[in-house]
Design brief:
This protein folds into 2 domains: 269 residues, Aldehyde Dehydrogenase, Chain A, domain 1, CATH 3.40.605; 182 residues, 3-Layer(aba) Sandwich (Aldehyde Dehydrogenase, Chain A, domain 2). Helices cover 37% and strands 21% of the residues. It contains 14 helices and 23 strands. Helix 8 links the parallel strand 11 and strand 12. The chain is globular, with a radius of gyration of 24 Å. The protein starts with a strand and ends in a 13-residue tail after the last strand. Bound molecules: nicotinamide-adenine-dinucleotide (NAD).
Length: 493
């Protein structure tokens, strides 16, 4: 048997095992075999990491000039570019995501660090038009303190960058808790952070389970903000935990994103966008376009074309550059998907392609592109977030009907509209209750584009100009400008 790779946690600039010596194995989704061993953070490891971040905040990081913090952000970006191949490989082994995506993403994610490095010295305060004589009052933006960044296993480099980059730029320090399902790439990332020479304790990387690690982190009294990406059930725990330390919480949660294709859409473009939206990353994306509404005149023809495109998708090893869909990241996910498909078929859903484990699944967690026709969108596959390559397809008559159907779901993260009619595209995109709408395209991200949802998809936007302010608090400072003593100490002026 090949030897497992061993990782350590990065706390206060040191590489540490858990103080309980507990470890767990992480599996390669391609073959269901353990390939690395990582320390499981205990409550006291969490305490060590948070205290290190707190000290670094108090002693050094919050006092650095913005332009000096920016230098470290740029250094992190450069390290990402230089080490993209290694990062991509490790993320692919640990999550089963395609190397052609993880490798490119590591390079692209560097842009987020550059973007927030650029913003570090551009967040300004104000001089207040105050209503009192002999007073000058100003506001400044000050850092919050220790940020707990909690990320899921998918797109960890991206979901870490959207938290870490603005947090560091504004003078906060960070404890990153990676997912127990695929923690390795975050430890590789920590090695690069160390190489930048950033002061000890400014960035700490740990991993572990919801309890004790996640719980200890989100209840810790020195944590001031929890930036969380993950599922809605975990979010409920985190909000309850935040009652202990009164920390601020931002939530990027799941989605069941609807896509509408009108009769007048450019069909080849729509098919490519839909394929990217639901079969890219094997559908394991929070913005996956998993509910498809087709207008009745094109319904059968378009669906046949989409099925034929889906059946051509090349399933294979995630490191192979020819592969278009790799395995799912974990076995539990495969079971959730199978259960939902079974229930949907029992309630009248018609599985038009896929629907059963791929033969490769004897070894790994492979599941083929699956398309299910549903008479109504309350069938389980059409209603629940499956986080897999499963597309539920429904028919609609007109604009009004499709808007109401698109909005009839608990989530509100992403959405898509395909039409050649510009005015209709504008009307429908405006009416959709979601944080993101793609018109005639899908699955794009950018450092300058705010990312996040409404309804049960969470609150707080990540990326973009505004989100940097989420890593600050406003401070008001009053200056008395007269040489005369103030009068009447017993009356508030
Ligand atoms: P998850 O909620 O199970 O886990 C997310 C993280 O929370 C992990 O690090 C986990 O260890 C941690 N955690 C679990 N219990 C905790 C607790 N009690 N206290 C603190 N932390 C705890 O999610 P997952 O299965 O890893 O990821 C899939 C989910 O993430 C999907 O719902 C997906 O839609 C969502 N997601 C959202 C976005 C977005 O930006 N909106 C992006 C990617 C993924």
């Amino acid at each position: 048997m090949t030897e497992l790779k061993n990782y350590k946690m990065f706390i206060d600039g040191e590489w540490l095992d858990s103080d309980t010596d507990k470890t767990f194995e992480t599996l390669n989704p391609e073959n269901n075999k353990p390939w690395a061993r990582v320390p499981e953070a205990s409550a006291s490891d969490v305490d060590k990491a948070v205290k290190a971040a707190h000290n670094a905040f108090e002693e050094e990081w919050s006092k650095l000039l913005p332009r000096d913090r920016a230098k470290f952000l740029r250094a992190i970006g450069n390290k990402l570019r230089e080490n993209a191949e290694l990062l991509g490989k490790i993320e692919t082994i640990d999550t089963g995501k395609l190397f052609r995506e993880t490798n490119k993403q590591a390079i692209y994610i560097a842009e987020y660090y550059d973007y927030y490095a650029g913003l570090a010295d551009k967040v300004e305060g104000t001089v207040l038009p105050i209503d009192k004589p002999n007073i000058q009052a100003i506001t400044t933006r000050i850092p919050i303190g220790v940020i707990a960044a909690i990320v899921p296993w998918n797109s960890q480099m991206f979901l870490t960058a959207t938290k870490l980059a603005p947090a560091l730029a504004m003078g906060n320090t960070v404890v990153i808790k990676s997912s127990e399902l695929a923690p390795a790439v975050m430890f590789e990332f920590a090695k690069l952070i160390e190489e930048t020479g950033i002061p000890k304790g400014v960035v700490n990387v740990i991993t572990g389970f919801g309890d004790p690690c996640g719980k200890a982190l989100t209840t810790h009294n020195l944590v001031e903000k929890v930036a969380f990406t993950g599922g809605p059930e975990t979010a409920r725990h985190i909000i309850r935990n935040s009652a202990e330390n009164l920390s601020e919480v931002s939530l990027e949660l799941g989605g069941k994103s609807p896509v509408a294709v009108f009769d007048d859409a450019k069909q080849e473009n729509a098919i490519n966008g839909i394929t990217a939206g639901i079969f890219g990353a094997s559908g394991q994306s929070c913005i996956a376009g998993s509910r498809l509404y087709l207008q009745k005149n094109i319904y059968s023809e378009f669906l046949d074309k989409l099925i034929s495109r889906a059946e051509k998708i090349k399933i294979g090893a995630p490191m192979d550059p020819e592969t278009e869909m790799g395995p799912l990241s974990n076995f539990k996910q495969l079971e959730v998907i199978e259960k939902n498909i079974k229930l949907t078929a029992e309630q009248g859903g018609k599985v038009r392609c896929g629907g059963e484990r791929h033969p490769f699944s004897n070894e790994g967690y492979y599941f083929p592109p699956t398309i299910i026709e549903c008479d109504n969108h309350n069938l389980p596959a059409a209603e629940n977030e499956l986080f897999g390559p499963v597309l539920s397809v429904m028919k609609f008559d007109d604009e009004e009907e499709v808007i109401s159907k698109m909005n009839d779901n608990q989530y509100g993260l992403s959405s898509g509209v395909y039409t050649s009619d510009f005015a209709k595209g504008l009307r429908v995109s405006k009416a959709i209750r979601a944080g993101i709408t793609f018109v005639n395209t899908y699955r794009l991200i950018s450092p300058s584009a705010p990312f996040g949802g409404i309804k049960d998809s969470g609150y707080g936007k990540e990326a973009g100009l505004e989100s940097i302010k989420d890593y600050t608090r406003v401070k008001t400072t009053w200056y008395y400008t007269s040489d005369e003593p103030t009068l009447d100490p017993f009356s508030m002026r």
